[in-house]
Request: fold
Amino acid sequence: MPTDHLSATFAALADPTRRGILARLTLGEASVTELAAPYAMSLPAISKHLKVLENAGLITRSREAQFRPCKLEAAPLRELADWLEFYRRHWEESLDRLGDYLRQLQKGPKE
Amino acid sequence: MTAAPRDITSTGTTPMTARTMTMVRTFHAPRAAVWAAWTEAQQLRAWWGPHHFTNAEVSVDLRVGGSQWIDMRGPDGTSYPLASTYREIEPQERLVLLNRVMEDDAGVALFEVQTTVTFAEERGRTSVSVFEEVLNARSGAEQHLAGMEAGMDQSLERLAAHLGSIVLAVPDDEPILWMSRIFDAPRALVWQALTDPKHAVHWWGQAAAKNVVFEMDSRVGGKWRVHQQYPDGQVFRFRGEVREFEPPCRIVQTFGMEGMFEDKIIVETATLTDIGNGRTLYKVVSRFESFEDRAGMIMSGMSYGAQEMLGRLAEYLDTL
Reply:
């Protein structure tokens, strides 16, 4: 997995406005105007955020339709979510298993 | 705004500036169980308070306007009474209490704190957020207020032990996440289980995987290497290096996974604390050290927006 790609995903997600935009896009495609509606921000400012998301591969924008609606791209987010989930589970399960193992050790015959 | 540098084991809590404090912790337990632990007298009695403290008496009248009473005792027997009134109750969602701390016989409290606890289900885990706001404090309260954060932190560690769960926290201001767990075993034994490969091979990693290669050279500069095979045949390879080694209480090592974040290691600091009665608190702080600063921000934002969003996205992605 190319790590630069993941760095871009991380960086793009670091901003609350961009996270908000992505959350909105889980509901379906939307135009820039629709995405800007909840924010006290100019359209160019929103467009700048969209550019960052687009460069990170998190969204795509239609070339054909007049309003160029934005669409969520699942793959990079899935990589990130999967990786974080994996690392978390690794430790969660390890600690659970360590607890069981320590119980066993203490129950076992004394050497 | 520049934050003062904080200790690596910082708790993921905003300090008591402006006399408010927020603490967010995730437990590996269903929301109903966490709610019950928080609202049933017998259960509160088992976990409430810092390590080494006990509760002589706890009563709960769970209705708006009803009272909660905890007679907490310090290790030296000092009584720390806590008289509270339920202000809001939304089962398994939200609890608001007005607490009168160290109330005297005339009914005058040393200080009052309003506590808002919210419970959120998060992919089979429960995320609990505690918001505390000091409403009035008389002189003499400072010392108690200063200890409030550590007290709540330890209470939540005990709650986790009570639930048979780990605690997970993701601070707001640093690229770290940490987990802790209380083990019913003396520190020397936990240390051995952590650092001796003969033992560690039995618990390291997810339960579904088999450790087909397991090497651990537990000393400063020593390397470790683990290959894990999953039932589908897939093999994951992990490796790292020991940076600090202080038996029996502290080990700092790196964690890397082949083919993933090769140049972006995680530094894990594990500490073991003897909390009495043959029990040991194990805490591992994972620092995403070589990630970009901004990457750190996403990690740190995980406790609120990002984590919730990633959860929602994961659910959404599952439907595709």
